[in-house]
Amino acid sequence: MSASMTPTSPTPPVPHAVALDVKPQVTAFFDAPTNTVSYVVKDPASSACAVIDSVMDIDYAAGRIAYQSADAIIAFIRDHGLTLEWLIETHVHADHLSAAPYIQGKLGGKLGIGEKITVVQDTFGKIFNEGTEFQRDGSQFDRLFADGDTYAIGTMTAFAMHTPGHTPACMTHVIGDAAFVGDTLFMPDGGTARADFPGGDPHVLYRSIRRVLALPPQTRLFMCHDYGPNGRQIQWETTVADERAHNVHVRDDITEEEFVAMRSARDATLDMPRLIIPSIQVNMRAGELPPPDADGKRFLKVPINGL
Length: 307
Prior knowledge:
Blueprint: E1 25-31, E2 36-42, E3 48-52, E4 57-59, E5 64-66, H1 68-79, E6 83-88, H2 100-107, E7 110-114, H3 117-127, E8 143-145, E9 150-153, E10 156-162, E11 171-175, E12 178-180, H4 202-212, E13 220-222, E14 237-239, H5 240-246, H6 256-267, H7 276-283
Parallel strand pairs: 3-6, 6-7, 7-8, 12-13
Antiparallel strand pairs: 1-2, 2-3, 4-5, 9-10, 10-11, 11-12, 13-14
Helix pairs in contact: 1-2, 4-6
């Protein structure tokens, strides 16, 4: 399903100086049903924090949603007297539903995502046959980040890097000496994200990853997912240096051509994520459920042979 979007220009540089002397306090929350890691990122000099890639619980077979995962994050923020300033989505997730609007309703803060959300909304608005009432301009979010945009979390300056290839809207958020890479990278023994979703491209993904790996070697990298390859314990933090030396898909001695051949062959064997149908419909709406019908009931659509 990969679209042809191979760039002809060289990989652009890292768009902002990295403040390695700023070391945010990062607390991880692992959601076992979706293998997702959410984060509370605290400014060490104030009570300000951000939440990155939250999870809404769903029993897909029963059509029921719940908020235990989000409530744990809310409780942590309240118990530590923190002020939530941002809720960040690294991209439109295809494997879990976002709880951002639920958390925002409890704690406030602004909700942000990459500006290419409009491309995702247009693509999947057609796949799910959404009507004209579904806005495809990203207006469901409070902030749409362009490459190199900055924003404040207390006294910290964060910046967003556009790192597409997995999806068009993928962004890596660099906050002090920490970078939150979404699905672009996994732990060194896990490799990289797939690139066969609509709008994905392995060439673009490789070049995006090289941008991330151009950050200073000691930069901490935080994953959105981990699956414990070969039975190891779940992990979510590594460094640029470790990825460059050991990542099984994109360490420094692997060329773009080698990566593209591997990634394309591997993606051809993968099934669609178990929760892609509900996840995309909710996440392209900034975590909101589809609007209710005349009777107040909400439904998710299943496109036949659409993915």
